[in-house]
Amino acid sequence: MQTRVCRLYGQDDLRIDTEATLDPIKDEVLVSVGAGGVCGSDMHYYFEGGIGQIRVREPIILGHEAAGTIVAFGPDVSGLSVGQKVAINPSHPCGTCRYCQQNLQQHCLNMKFFGSAMPMPHIQGAFRDLVNVRQGQCFAIGDQTDIGRAACAEPLAVCLHAVARAGDLSGKKVLITGAGPIGSLCAAAAKLAGAAEIVVTDLQDFALGVARKMGATRTINIAKAADDLTPYEAEKGQFDVCLECSAAPAALRTAISTLRPQGILVQVGVAGEMPVPFNPLVAKEITITGTFRFSTEFAEAVGMIDRGEIDVAPIITQTFPLETAKEAFEVARDRSKSVKVQLAFAS
Predict the structure, then answer these.
(1) Residues in domain Enoyl reductase (ER) (predicted)?
(2) Which residues are within 8 A (CB) of 227 and not within 5 positions of it... i.e. 6 or more apart?
(3) Strand bridging mode 112-113 / 91-92
(4) Rounded CA gap, 46 and 341, in Å?
(5) Which of 46, 173, 199, 230 lies at 20 to 30 Å from 132 by C-alpha?
(6) What's residue 260's pLDDT?
(7) What is the pLDDT, as a whole number, of residue 270?
């Protein structure tokens, strides 16, 4: 069988190629991809040739947010059926390294993560009409669940893990800096976790409008009304938790100035090196913690989407056919009119 693939050859060199797809063997499942979300890492690879020290060093098929329909499977597969809809977990930990043995699979020393340029050779991604994945990477969804929404399970899993890193949010005041897909999904996850107040900041009104639909109780455009954050600095800070999703130095300063003493700062967004105002961080005894990908949260995310507990539809702002992938990437980086852009495939 032939499949189209969205392959990056280097910075600004994205091509739609056609190649043969092998029949599934052993515990492999052949999935006809229906939808794939364009992630920030995909855009960094395309527009910048990498992310920080991670560079694209060979052709790579992009994409790690995907869902589709099973068309075939190997002889060792059980419990799945042809025609069944599945969300695809892009994470494939080895299961045997020291971190996998400690249930820290997101830190697997031999991780194979779709569309990743971290290892060499690169791990090929899911932006293709047909892709073979392991049975353990397939999470069944109901016929009623839209494929595009199911493809949002991966970013939602990232946000569920980030919220878990913050501890119990019941009745808490939460600040979320950055209203991209991750920021908006963090708002939904924080709401589900029982946060009493969720304030989301960004530079774009369009993104903030989506954040309100996803659970923000208040939004602030800091390009127009930065002073609206000043009251939250009173009495050493008002927020219990900040989920910092922008990786912007100004946002980090805002987080530290508005967090209460012994508040928790979860750094979700990633970029290069960032200056940290350590004096207030130390004086207010703020806990700063990182968050990386997810583990068991992927199954949780699929279930929440499938049951309708979290409606991810508002973040999906545009869908483009695979053959117009370049246009999709251009729109995806225009935050004045997009949040989550998806590609649609042959199925």
Answers:
(1) 10-343
(2) none
(3) antiparallel
(4) 15
(5) 46
(6) 98
(7) 84
Q: How far is CA 220 from the centre of its chain?
A: 23
Half-sphere exposure of 222 (CA within 13 A, CB side): 17
| Burial environment of residue 234 by CB neighbours within 10 A (0 to 12, 13 to 18, 19 or more) | exposed
Tally: H helices and E strands in the chain: 11, 20
| Ranges of residues in the chain whose predicted pLDDT is under 70 | 347
**Count of Cβ atoms closer than 10 Å to residue 328 Cβ:** 24
Q: Where are the domains of the chain?
A: 2-152+312-344, 158-290
What DSSP string describes 259-305? EEEEEEEEE----S-----HHHHHHTT-EEEE--S-STHHHHHHHHH
Q: What confidence score (pLDDT) does residue 108 get?
A: 97
Residue 101 burial (C-beta neighbours within 10 Å; 0-12, 13-18, 19+): exposed
**CATH class assigned to 158-290:** alpha beta
Reduced to 3 states (helix: H, G, I; strand: E, B; else coil), residue 146 is: coil
What is the pLDDT at residue 321? Answer: 97
Q: At the top level of CATH, which class does the domain 2-152+312-344 belong to?
A: alpha beta
Residue 251: predicted pLDDT: 95
pLDDT score recorded for residue 347: 58
Both tokens of residue 192?
A: 């589900």
pTM: 0.96
Burial track 28-64 (b if 16+ CB lie within 10 A, e otherwise): bbbbbbbbbbbbbbbbbbbeebbbeeeebeeebbbbb
In whole angstroms, give the CA distance from residue 75 to residue 273: 48
pLDDT of residue 216: 98
